[in-house]
Amino acid sequence: MSETESARPPIAIDGPAVSGKSSVGKQFAVRIGYRFLDTGLMYRAATWNAVQNGVDVNDSQAVAIAAERMEFSVADDEQGGNLITVNGEDVTDHLHSTQVDDSVSAVAAVGRVREIMVAEQRRLAGEGDIVMVGRDIGTVVIPDAPLKIYLTASARTRAIRRHRDFLAEGTDVELEDILSSMERRDLVDSSRADSPLRPADDARVIDTDSLTFNQVVDLLTELAKEVL
Questions:
Q1: 206 partner at 20 to 30 Å CA-CA among 121, 137, 151, 222?
Q2: Which comes out higher in pLDDT, residue 80 or 200?
Q3: What is the reported pTM?
Q4: Element (H, E) at 118
């Protein structure tokens, strides 16, 4: 069997913040023997880089210049997740800070930033055998993917999940503050002019509000059998 014949098609998973797409996507990828890419980490890396360099995240031109100058790479970690390096430094552990949370939607809305990231994402998708999660994977990055999933949940359910994560890390943040931030991000992500958050027309929409983690992974694994 040739290399072309042996490569399996990429799978797209989209959804709003904390809909479970990253944790579910990673386990799902392990289950079906695929690589995993959380594209949101790439935008978070651009955000972290901008903030660290004192860039006003609301200045689109400055954000774009910072992203163009940034050298970044994505690698697999031992647990099937991703390691993100910016200018030679592993920044993975910094990418879910509240500071990045509050600014990432503004950075991700910059067209030039998306252009840089989408080009790299398409390159990786072209290698096949990858589960790619984000907000515009099925609509923009790999619209020809044979399986597109859109995971969703209510804003309050997602805020409770993120609050639980913060508490586990020893970070004291008010639930209502997280909910407000979540709702603002949803609005920005879904109303931006460039690649707004929405399900692809042929995406399988899954509401995770009443599903356990394992139930979602099982459901995705069953759907994958239709295309693999």
A1: 121
A2: 200
A3: 0.86
A4: helix 111-125
